[in-house]
């Protein structure tokens, strides 16, 4: 099987699904996140290493027509696993070449541009990590039947009014209904509002009691989640450490 040299331009936009998890260590930047101290710096998209599998996928996907991308990728992945090491060698060599090209392209950037890209990429990765963590957290809430926060008086009023009218469809209708309910709420008398205020207070008390029960039952898991959330908080980007002045 002959090696097919592929332009590195394609891989700048290649899906992260097939991007390598390898990292480069670099000393060209002055700013790094506190999480990256003493760790290899992952380069921004478009400059990370290219895997042999990514080269193979690119070649095969160009020839796939009239087939769903997900199905085509599954077939390509299966054929890759069945290939011998000898057949994979051309793609391995090609991936090394493209990886070196990426490193050279990154090295040619100005120091300011490198810093901007690295900082932006670090923030992007942190955001993605937090998003994944929040999805898992909501799964935990669902699995443990966490009580849902009770509605306030105005929302209880809106709910009651919605039951009397046709349910709005579309964003514009919902916004219009919300404005109309807001105007109606403003002109209600104190006695009319009291009905919803009292109901909201009762629901809030019930919610508070149920929440305490839920917290007691899941105390250990909640403690673990709090630790995870604390560690996932956005980390400030730091510059070079300032020189410490001697104590007088």
Automatic annotation (TrEMBL):
GO BP annotations listed: regulation of transcription by RNA polymerase II
Entries under SUPFAM superfamilies matching the protein: HMG-box
PROSITE patterns: HMG_BOX_2
Entry protein name: HMG box domain-containing protein
InterPro entries linked: HMG_box_dom (IPR009071), HMG_box_dom_sf (IPR036910), HMGB (IPR050342)
Domain HMG box: 46-110, 147-215
DNA-binding region: 46-110, 147-215
Lineage of the species this protein comes from: Eukaryota, Metazoa, Ecdysozoa, Nematoda, Chromadorea
Pfam families per record: HMG_box_2 (PF09011)
Recorded superkingdom: Eukaryota
Species assigned in the record: Meloidogyne enterolobii
Keyword terms of this UniProt record: DNA-binding, Nucleus
């Amino acid at each position: 099987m002959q090696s097919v040299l592929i332009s590195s331009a394609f891989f700048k936009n290649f899906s992260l699904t097939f991007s390598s998890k390898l990292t480069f260590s670099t000393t060209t930047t002055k700013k790094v996140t506190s999480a990256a101290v003493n760790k290899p710096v992952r380069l921004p998209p478009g400059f990370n290493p290219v895997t042999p599998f990514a080269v193979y996928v690119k070649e095969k996907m160009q020839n796939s027509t009239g087939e769903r991308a997900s199905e085509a990728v599954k077939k390509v992945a299966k054929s890759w696993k069945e290939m011998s090491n000898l057949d994979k060698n051309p793609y391995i060599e090609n991936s090394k070449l493209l990886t070196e090209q990426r490193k050279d392209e990154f090295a040619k950037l100005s120091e300011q541009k490198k810093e901007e890209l690295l900082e932006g990429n670090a923030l992007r990765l942190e955001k993605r990590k937090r998003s994944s963590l929040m999805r898992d957290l909501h799964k935990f809430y669902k699995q443990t039947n966490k009580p849902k926060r009770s509605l306030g008086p105005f929302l209880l009023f809106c709910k009651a009014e919605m039951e009397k009218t046709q349910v709005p469809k579309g964003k514009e209708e919902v916004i219009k209904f919300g404005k109309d309910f807001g105007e109606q709420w403003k002109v209600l008398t104190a006695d009319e509002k009291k009905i919803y205020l009292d109901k909201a207070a009762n629901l809030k008390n019930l919610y508070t009691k149920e929440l305490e029960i839920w917290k007691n039952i899941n105390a250990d898991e909640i403690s673990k989640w709090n630790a995870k959330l604390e560690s996932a908080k956005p980390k400030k980007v730091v510059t070079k450490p300032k020189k410490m002045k001697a104590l007088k």
